[in-house]
C-alpha cells in the first residue's frame, strides 16, 4: 500500500513546487482568505502552509490523509462540473508517503485544534487559530532515487515561487505571503486582478497592458495583455487560465501567438494574464492530475474565439 502510494506520488509529487501547488489548492478550496507559506531549502527541507479556511474536524483528520478520501465530490455527476481545485482525494496521501507530513487544524466552531502525524496517524490536541497548517518535511527522505532528481535549492525555490505566482494571479482576493529560509520574499495583499497583476508582473507590464474583456455566448476572455511596447523582464510571462485553473496549453498558446503576430515581430514572446471561461462540460481538465494540459470539446471554436478576442483588443486604437 505504501508502495502504491509512492508510485502514485511520483506522478503528483514531482518536486517541492508540485507539493506546494496541491497545498495551495487545498487552502483555496477550504475558502481561505489568507495563506502564508514558509519554505526551507527550496521546499525540500520544509514546506509549511497556514490558512484561515474552514478547517478539518478532528474526526476527519485521518480521512484527509487516506487515499481517495475527498470531501469535495459526492457523485459522478459532481465530477462533470467540479468547481473545486481538488476532487481526487489523493494528493495528501501521496505526499505523506514520500515526506514527513503533519496537519494541524481547527474549525471555526471549536475551541481547540488537533494535529495528526502522517506516519503514525496519531491525533493530539494543538493550540492554534481557526484554519489549517500543513507541514511537509524532508521530501523524498524515504525514496533516495527520487531525491536525486531534485535540483539546486535556488532552482527548487524558483519553481515554488512560480507555483505561488500562478495561484496568486487567479485568486487576487486572497492575501498571500512567502518566506524562504526565514526571510520574507513576497507579501501580496488582497485586492483585485489589476493590483495583483501589478504586484506579480510589475508596474511596467500593467502600464503597457490592455484590459481584456470579451464575451461570446458561453465563452469569455478577461485579463490583461501587454502591448508590444512592453519590454518584458525576460521570464515567461504567459499566464493562461481555464475556468480558474492555470494551464499550459498548445492550442491556447497558439491562438494567442497568432493574435500577436501582426503587432509583435521577431522572436519576442507576448506577455499576458488571461482567463478563459466556458461551460465546464466543454473542457476536460482531468487529463492528468499534475499536468497543466486540458482538452476542449470544440477546440476550433475555442481557438477562434481566443484569437479574435485578443486580436481585437490589441488592435483597438489607443484611448
Ligand atoms: P482533494 O483535494 O482532491 O479532496 P487532498 O488529498 O488534497 O484531496 O485532500 C484531502 C481532503 O483533506 C480534502 O478533501 C479536504 O477535505 C481536506 N483538506 C486538505 N487540506 C485542507 C485545508 N487546508 N483546509 C481544509 N481541509 C483540507
Ligand atoms: Mg487537494
UniProtKB/TrEMBL annotation:
Record key words, sorted: DNA damage, DNA repair
Residue ranges annotated for the DNA mismatch repair protein S5 domain, each copy included: 197-315
GO cellular component: mismatch repair complex
Gene Ontology molecular function: ATP binding; ATP hydrolysis activity; ATP-dependent DNA damage sensor activity; mismatched DNA binding
GO biological process, one term: mismatch repair
Family according to the record: Belongs to the DNA mismatch repair MutL/HexB family.
Known function: This protein is involved in the repair of mismatches in DNA. It is required for dam-dependent methyl-directed DNA mismatch repair. May act as a 'molecular matchmaker', a protein that promotes the formation of a stable complex between two or more DNA-binding proteins in an ATP-dependent manner without itself being part of a final effector complex.
Protein's name in the database: DNA mismatch repair protein MutL
Gene name as annotated: mutL
Shown segment, full-protein numbering: 9 to 327 of 585
Amino acid at each position: 500500500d505504501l508502495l502504491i502510494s509512492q508510485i502514485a506520488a511520483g506522478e503528483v509529487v514531482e518536486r517541492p513546487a508540485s507539493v506546494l501547488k496541491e497545498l495551495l489548492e487545498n487552502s483555496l478550496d477550504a475558502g481561505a482568505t489568507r495563506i502564508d507559506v514558509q519554505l526551507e531549502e527550496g521546499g525540500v527541507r520544509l514546506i509549511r502552509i497556514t490558512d484561515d479556511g474552514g478547517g478539518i474536524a478532528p474526526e476527519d483528520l485521518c480521512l484527509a490523509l487516506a487515499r481517495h478520501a475527498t470531501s469535495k465530490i459526492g457523485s459522478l455527476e459532481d465530477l462533470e462540473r467540479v468547481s473545486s481545485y481538488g476532487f481526487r482525494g489523493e494528493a495528501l496521501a501521496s505526499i505523506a508517503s514520500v515526506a514527513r507530513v503533519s496537519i494541524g487544524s481547527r474549525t471555526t466552531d471549536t475551541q481547540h485544534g488537533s494535529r495528526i502525524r502522517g506516519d503514525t496517524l496519531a491525533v493530539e490536541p494543538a493550540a492554534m487559530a481557526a484554519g489549517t497548517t500543513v507541514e511537509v518535511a524532508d521530501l523524498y527522505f524515504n525514496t533516495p532515487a527520487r531525491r536525486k532528481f531534485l535540483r539546486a535549492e535556488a532552482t527548487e525555490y524558483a519553481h515554488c515561487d512560480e507555483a505561488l505566482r500562478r495561484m496568486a494571479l487567479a485568486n487576487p482576493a486572497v492575501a498571500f505571503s512567502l518566506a524562504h529560509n526565514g526571510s520574507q520574499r513576497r507579501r501580496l495583499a488582497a485586492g483585485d486582478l489589476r493590483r495583483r497583476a501589478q504586484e506579480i508582473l510589475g508596474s511596467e507590464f500593467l502600464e503597457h497592458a490592455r484590459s481584456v474583456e470579451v464575451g461570446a455566448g458561453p465563452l469569455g476572455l478577461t485579463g490583461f495583455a501587454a502591448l508590444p511596447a512592453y519590454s518584458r523582464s525576460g521570464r515567461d510571462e504567459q499566464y493562461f487560465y481555464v475556468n480558474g485553473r492555470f494551464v499550459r496549453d498548445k492550442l491556447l498558446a497558439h491562438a494567442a501567438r497568432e493574435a500577436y503576430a501582426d503587432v509583435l515581430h521577431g522572436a519576442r514572446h507576448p506577455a499576458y494574464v488571461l482567463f478563459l471561461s466556458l461551460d465546464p462540460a466543454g473542457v476536460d481538465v482531468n487529463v492528468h492530475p499534475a499536468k497543466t494540459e486540458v482538452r476542449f470539446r470544440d477546440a476550433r471554436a475555442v481557438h477562434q474565439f481566443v484569437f479574435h478576442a485578443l486580436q481585437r483588443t490589441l488592435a483597438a486604437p489607443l484611448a
